[in-house]
Amino acid sequence: MSGASVLAEIPGRVEKVFLNPDNTISANGIYAVNFYTLGLPHTVIVDDYLPLYDNGSGYRTLFASVSEDKGLWGPILEKAFAKYHGNYEHIVGGDPNYSVRTLAGSPFYDVWHSEMTTDELWTLLKEHDAEDDILQAGTPGTSHFDAGV
Questions:
Q1: To the nearest whole number, what is the mean pLDDT of the chain?
Q2: In percent, how much of the chain has pLDDT > 70?
Q3: How many domains in the chain?
Q4: CA dihedral 84, 85, 90, 96 (to 10 degrees)
Q5: Which of 2, 6, 14, 104 is a plausible cystine mate for 149, CB 3.0–4.6 Å?
Q6: Domain that holds residue 24
Q7: What global pTM score does this model have?
Q8: Is residue 6 a part of any domain in this protein?
Q9: Residue 20 within a domain
Q10: What is the pLDDT of residues 60-113, one digit of tens each?
Q11: What values do phi and psi take at 115, rounded to 5?
């Protein structure tokens, strides 16, 4: 979900992951999500049967939540990502850089900013932000820069 939140910074990026052209709830409960495997598109089809639990006052999704405006994109995206990897257990934790690469198909590189001055880092961040590149923090001392989608 952190990868999806990084993509969502620019309007339209998350919407491009879903293959339903009008971005509405499917009457049949079937959704196609486009991921990338080794840079090539890979479509994953999922239904809208989501894992739920009873919290005492109704049912809630077990993992990603339905948004306040009743949007299902988060739980559907998470289910497709879990299917892509085999199950929900396989997507616990991990490197958010990998999820962005799977969602966007974009190349990336790490910047070891611990070896840069503050001014050099700020200049680099502004350059990538101006290009609408995907910026995310990595392990301590690094940042990831993904090509714009």
A1: 81
A2: 89
A3: 1
A4: -80
A5: 104
A6: 2-106
A7: 0.76
A8: yes
A9: yes
A10: 888 888 888 877 888 999 999 999 999 888 888 777 777 888 888 877 777 777
A11: -100, 10
